[in-house]
Structures are given as structure tokens and as C-alpha cells.
Fold this protein.
Amino acid sequence: MFNSEYILSFIDDRLKKFINEVRFRSSDEVILIYVYRGKIAEKVRPGFTSLRQMNNLASRLSQQLSLEVDVIFTIKGDHQGLEDALYQMLKHKFPDAVVSFYMSLADEITVNSWVEISGLTEEIKNKVEDYCSTIFQEADLNLGVIEWIDSVDDLPALPLLLKYLKTNQPIKIEYFEQVLREDFPAVSKRWLNQKLDQCRRKNLIIREKEGIYCLSAKGLSIVPAGAWYTSSDIDRVLALGRKKW
Amino acid sequence: MKVVGEQLQDWAQEQKDDLNKDVFGRSAFNRYYYAAYLITRMNLGELNPIWKTEKHKAMPNTLITTVRKPVIRALEKQVKKDVMTESERSKAVGSLKVATAALSDLLKEAYDLRCVADYEPEELISFDNKLLLLKEYKLDSARKWPSKASAYCKTIRRIWRDAGLV
């Protein structure tokens, strides 16, 4: 059984100040080092440590004590409070739109956020983003990545569009639109025309005379393929099996 | 699983006896962890069947290593072939790193609290008005673990999907 003082005696004084808690978990014999995310910076500088420094500390301790050592990055209680407070403020400001709000700290000042909105539009996105930025600035924090959960106006990225085309080719634009709309209700014929035209100019797809689209060899080489069960090759084989000739 | 946790939490808060509050409260921590873990395992399992059987302790590390690799490789290839711009790639990789790191942190911390709740009965649940805390961690915050795990998984799946991998 290792107590915290004993474990701490193996840790350099300059690193101890970044550590919130050290403990030995007897159930699986692991030493845990708790570090606040707010103490992590990209590079070591006065008052801050880095991921690399903490991971090096863990492997050094592991060798010295012949035990598994795990670093757990956590957020302070006041940051948990900030998440709750910001959620309430967003609910108050956008009562019919905001469903949930979560945040995580990337480093001492950068906050990443996940926002779930019902009926997401560009206008609401911008308003919520501006509102969050203003509040974080007031708290001396920066808004990092903001992720929108369950956005119904989601559209497929180009690599995904090519994967759908690989699965369903040869296909007319009208049918292709129907296939895409099953997973992406926001897809329109105009948007699809634009994207297919863009792909054609990059020689990724071929448009035949009858308005039928297929992947070119270049397009085919881009779509990730392999033997895993979600691979485009498997999707293609299954689609061929379902096809009525 | 989340519903069970919520019910246990409600019961814990209703109890008059501190010992009963403790046992219901620590069981709620356990259920909230399992809900988050199973949500993660199910979502990752849809990306790669190997991850359907991923062990508790391995999951956080898998998230920040092998879950990232295929996406990073595919996106680099797509930039080279001019299907994606460098800024689109960088944004997608940034989002993937943020979501996998956040989920990895959550699972590590939640697993440790679950171990305290299950194996260290001497570490009692404390009370601050209506709040129940285990090692200063609020049970109300643990209640969010499953929803948070689900939100982070959605981001990871979206990026995998956008890269054409699923």
C-alpha cells in the first residue's frame, strides 16, 4: 500500500505545484496523478506544465515504483459551476433553442463547447457563438472549438459525398439526391449540382451523356477502402446485392 | 443505465439516514459511469467492431491514439488529392482531438470515482445542502456523464463519417 506522501517523495518539487492530488488505487494497483486542465499549456512556462511533462513524469514514476501510473486531467469545481451557469444563461437568452450545453478545457484559458440546439440555423449559431465569446471574455477565457450537436442542416463533406457515389454508382442526379436526403434532409438539387460540378472539374467524377454520374479512377482512389465492415467496399457490395437489375 | 442512476440519485436525496444516502449515492456514481462507458463502447463499436469489446482501462488511451489515426491519415490523403483544403483538414483534426481528449478525460475521472464508490467504502459521501459529493465531486455533475459522452461521440462519429470512413 502506497500513501500519497510516499508517492509525492518521488516527484520533483517543481512539478508538485501542478498536482492537485496523488493517490494509490488499491483495487487495480494504479497510481493516479490528478492535474487541473487549467495548469496545462502547450509548452512549459512559469506557472504552467505541459501534457508531455506530465506524461514523462508518469512513465518515470512507473519505472521507479514498478506500478502503472495514470494522469487524470480534471477541471476545478468553479469551472463545473461555470458550465452550469452558462447553460442557465443560454437557456434564458435562447429559451426555445438551447437544449444542452457542455464544456471542456483545452488549456488554462481555452474552453471548448458542445451546444445542442433545436431548429439550428446559421442565425442562431452566430448569435449563440457571439454570446458565448462575450461571456468567456468577461471571465478571461477564450472560446476554442464550438461543436453543434444534432444539427439538422448538416450537409455531407466532399469525401463522404464521393463515398455515397461509390456505393450507388452509376446514378442519376435525381436518385442520388433522394439517397442523400435519407441521411441529410438539408440536401437540395442546387447544392448537389454545385458539388458534383466541383468534383467533375477536379476530375473526381465522370458525367455521362444521359446525366449519369460515376467515380473516375482518381475519385475512386480517394475514397477510403478496406476490409473493415463499415468500409466503402463493403457498402458497395451490399448495395449491388440489393440493386434490382 | 442512466435512468437507473437518476432513480438512485433521487432516492439518495430523499433519504433521511446518512448511511442510506451514502449507499444510494455511491451506487448512482457507479451507474452514471457505466452509462457513459457503454455509450462510448457502442459508438466506437460502430466505427470499428474491435472497440465493441474494449476494456474500461484501455478505452481512454484508445480514444487519443487509435481512434484518431485513420482519420488523420485519410484527411492527409484527401488534402494531397485536392478534395479538401488544408484549413478544412486542420479544423476537422482539431475537432477530433478536442472531442477524443474530452471523452478520454471524462472516462478516466469517472472510472476513478466509480472505483472509489465501489471499493473504498471508508470514503463516505458528503453533503452540502441538497448536493451529494464523493471526494468533492458533485453527483449532479456525474449525472451529466452519459449525455456528455454521447455529445463527444457524436462529434467523433461525424468526423469519421465526413472523412468517408463510415
Remarks:
- The longest helix of chain B spans residues 86-119.
- Residues 64 and 97 of chain B are 7 Å apart (CA to CA).
- The helical segments of chain B are 2-14, 18-47, 59-64, 69-80, 86-119, 139-142, 145-162.
- The mean pLDDT of chain B is 92.
